[in-house]
Amino acid sequence: MSTSTIHDIGYRHYEGRRQGRAYVLRSLFVHNLRAAYGLGRPARAKVMPFLVAAIMLVPAAGSVAAVGIAKQPDALIRYSSYANLLQVIVAIFLAAQAPVLASREIRFHVVPLYFSRPVDHLDFVLAKLGAMASALFALLAVPITVLYVGGLVSKVPDSGKQLLHYLGALVGCVIYALVLSAIGLVVAAFTPRRGLGVAAVIAVYMLSTTVVAIVQGIAENQANNFTLSGWAGLFSPFNLVDIVQVRLLGAELSSPAAPSGVVGGIVALAFCAVIVLGATAVLYRRFRKAGLS
Question: What's the whole-model pTM score?
Answer without folding.
Answer: 0.90
